[in-house]
Amino acid sequence: MGALKNDSSLDVRMLRIFAAVAAADSLSAAAQALNVTQSAVSQVVSQIEQILGMRVLDRSCRPYKLTPAGVALQRHSRQIVDDVDRLIAQVREADLMNRPAIRIGMIDSFAATTGPSIVKRLTQSASQVLVWSGLAYGHAQALLNRQVDIIVTTDALEDVDDLARRPILTEPFVLVVPAARADTFAAMDLRQLAQAAPLIRFSGRSHFGAMIERHLRRCGVSAPPYLEIDTSDVVMAMIAANLGWALATPLCLLQGRAWLDQVAVLPLPGPGLARTLHQVSRHREFEEMAEMCWQFSRSALETEIFPQMTARLPWLGRQMRLC
């Protein structure tokens, strides 16, 4: 075929494809191993032969055989491809080691609904992502004690200096009742509800539960102790079992989505109540990562969470909104 034409055109991609061809007994088998078309493999082999100016495959026999030039190319191409793969792995590992490890605390309802999307995106920029879930009070203490770097919370820690606060979301409280009693409860105010059925409380140890208790006192509602629970999915399970009613928010509903078909969600009777979720971090620490996390949170809410809630509760309108 003539002398070598242009060895600089022989790239790693070509060598990788030729290595697969040399290891197979047909072009179709090589193409299947590479998940490409047979014509693409055939074109690459022809390009290699044009560049080298000699045959690398003896196509006169079936299955084909490597020519002496093909044998030499196979030996060296496999080594070059392996070296390039090791180089890429080492570069990626070095890059990963230079990325920061980030520790994030999230309240349960946010972690269970929006958290997976945020963590998936953060892992592309951080060497390690550690997520704590649980009550807002515990996250606040962990941030102040430097056990976590960022928290998503209902408690913005307004009385603490040197913190960066980024509001994320405002969402309304709604009334959640057993589906079987929805028509009866829909006509009642909160006082009547407290007399007709037990109130299932969120834990008084949580900032969320404390907000509900203050609202009930302002509305003059007195409900005797009955059930007090930390997590939204368990609250929803109790309501689905017709054990009482509760005040919750859209994120709480999604956290307990397994029970949504067995409960009814109604507008909160009387004065409205809403909560705002904040991202809080320490000033001048992990600033780029904190900004990234905040942006990821907003994007996940807008593209994933809001459409789910709009489909289930169209009457919420814009009550659930980004800050």
TrEMBL record:
It comes from Bordetella flabilis. GO terms for cellular component: cytosol. InterPro entries: HTH-type_LysR_regulators (IPR050950), LysR_HTH_N (IPR000847), LysR_subst-bd (IPR005119), WH-like_DNA-bd_sf (IPR036388), WH_DNA-bd_sf (IPR036390). The keyword Glycosyltransferase does not apply. GO terms for molecular function: DNA binding; DNA-binding transcription factor activity. Belongs to the LysR transcriptional regulatory family. It comes from the Bacteria. Keywords: DNA-binding, Transcription, Transcription regulation. Residues 10-67 form the HTH lysR-type domain. Pfam families: HTH_1, LysR_substrate. This is LysR family transcriptional regulator.
